[in-house]
Automatic annotation (TrEMBL), chain A:
Chain ranges of the ABC transmembrane type-1 domain: 69-277
Membrane spanning stretches: 7-29, 72-96, 108-127, 150-175, 208-225, 256-278
Keyword Nucleotide-binding: no
Organism for this UniProt entry: Deinococcus multiflagellatus
Compartment(s) of residence: Cell membrane
Name of the molecule in the record: Carbohydrate ABC transporter permease
Protein family according to the UniProt entry: Belongs to the binding-protein-dependent transport system permease family.
InterPro entries attached to this UniProt entry: MetI-like, MetI-like_sf, UgpAE/MalFG_permease
Pfam families assigned to the protein according to its UniProt record, in alphabetical order: BPD_transp_1
Main location: membrane
The organism's place on the tree of life at top rank: Bacteria
Keywords: Cell membrane, Membrane, Transmembrane, Transmembrane helix, Transport
Membrane topology: Multi-pass membrane protein
Amino acid sequence: MKPPRAVPWLFLSPFLVLFAAFYVAPVLYAGYLSLFIKKRAGFGPAKEVFGGLTNYVRAFQDSDFLASLLNILKFAAVQIPLMIVLATALALALDASRGRLQGFFRTAFYLPYTIPSVIAGLLWGYLYSKNLSPFNQITGRSFDFLGSDVVLWSIANIVTWTWTGYNMITLYAALQNIPSDLYEAARIDGADGWNLTRFIKLPLLKPSLLLVLIFSIIGTMQIFSEPFVIRPLGYVPDNITPNTYLYLVATRDGNFSYAATLAILLALFTLLLSAVFLRFTRRGGDL
Amino acid sequence: MNKVLMTALTALLAGSALAADPAFPKAPSGKVTLEVWSWVPGLDKTVQAFEKAYPNIDVKVTNLGGGPQTYTKLLTTLKAGTGAPDVAQIEYGFLPAFVDTGGLTDLSTLGANNYRKYFVPWTWGQVSPDGKAVFAIPQDTGPFAMVYNDAGLKKYGVSVPRTWAEYEKAAATVYTKSGGQVKLGNFYATYAPWFMALAWADGAQFFKRDGDRWVQTLNNPTAKKVLNYWYGMIKKGHVGTLNAFTSDYWNAVGAGKVLSNMEAAWGPGGYAGSLKDKTAGQWRAANLPQWTAGSTVRSGNWGGSSNVVTAQSKNKEAAMLFSLWLNLSQSAISNNWVNGGLFPASDAGLDFAVLKDKTKNPSKFFGGQDISAVYARASRGVNVNFQWAPWFPFANDNFNKQMDLMLKGRLTPDQALDAWQRETLAEAKKQGYDVR
């Protein structure tokens, strides 16, 4: 006897309800908000009137928003490869090592990820402060890690510190899943060390690497807490990341409609970036 | 006879020192619950006295800790049209931005103007820009004075500067005698209201209403004069540019590397709290240095806050009564000072004995000096006609950008202020304001 058609929907319904309430509805609401603009006449509160695509036109002419996108692309181009190479190297090293220390290192590398990003920001904020920084005290210099020219890279360092271990665990798990008969066969063929890594481990790691990369791209586009926590310590530009900028547009300038517009554009931009990346890597074959 | 007279006089004096609270409006009848958002430490204890005096009103205090997040939360609830408290705390500079949301009650409709006379005049100008509508009840103030490390000044043989010319000379002396290790002062490059208070003291106006329009002059001649003055000292290294409220700053001050600063009336509490034992007792407060030597002290204001009643409040009368009580009753003013270091906006409050208690901080940290007398003088010397614009939050952040470029040497002080004016004006126009 076939179960009634409604059964799968019944099981799916908790997810669908939550998905609709906390994902679809806010997105639709943001889309609706983005169509309004503020109109003022003399003093007093502004009126929200229908503005069509005015906000979208403004966004494409908004040098702060465009600069924030450029900032995050620069950031991603440097930080993501660095982090992935580091995470892969650590995963390979852990996989190759044996003994009790393996567990210790696995935990130690993963630990930064368990610290909330706000706390990580505060912690690093102290390590970066010009006159108290241990780095400056050891080297006897007075480098300003929070200077507006370098603060983007100081934030990149925090992000790398937080996420390398997390990515390492994903890659390490993938390495552990490689069947051992593959290694045995390779050894019989005379492969060892680097060859084993080059011809067995890395090719089989590719799907996991792609996953980690895609998550990193999406995560980078959403960076917010680190610059936000560091802002009170010195001058951090408003448009250091798209998220800090649109947050300020909403909460500082009180322009929720324009912030909604920027949020939608940022989401589309992220989607586009991920799609281009997937397309590119699929066509490219082996890494 | 003499003795009797003395006793009578003493009784009279004691009576006047314990002047009665003003007559507050009649409390509404029936059970009322007020929700209050504030960042004043220990406010929950202060309101117990209110609940005792008005047993039918229940006050629920939520301490949001202050800072930008507090405003974010308030702005969101006002925008959403639901979830806002009855009473909230807002700094003067940010008040017009909230007025602009349409989410605040005009308290003049509830008779707030009857209480105008009890407040220091300039504070009322901050909450009632046109002298008619009243958008908040003044709470605390931040008139400007100079705090200085007396032992440090003596060490380098400089006397307390009374004019900016003397201050400049003293800064050079301290720098030279310490071999460049110690600075007399510090410029807070990421706090626009700090800089604006200095220009405010010299009569500067940054925003003005002009009929139905606005005029913005962030690059006014006084602002240029003040910024060029400080930039000159910064370039020579005579004053530093450490960021306010950072561990870097407190560390330098505690180590005796920064000897003075211009601070608001709520500032000394921060010195006493952040420096603890370091340099305790060595500090003093003096009048803000003046541009021209003279008898009247002119000052500006940094920060300070007010209490608004939201349009969403279901108990607006009770909410206004509470706001008035919180800022005019002896018990509340005293508690707010002791628990939160709030320097009163109430005129009578400036002379309360509790502000002069030498055994308690911040006076204790300041060597037992009655620093409130210095700040009371400053408060009464604050220019009355000073207005803020609804787009001030943007100007506040944009200032940091221009100062950053100036300190890097990419803009002169004049260019920095011109850019501040230009970029903020463009933003205000984008936000739909009729401004020039």
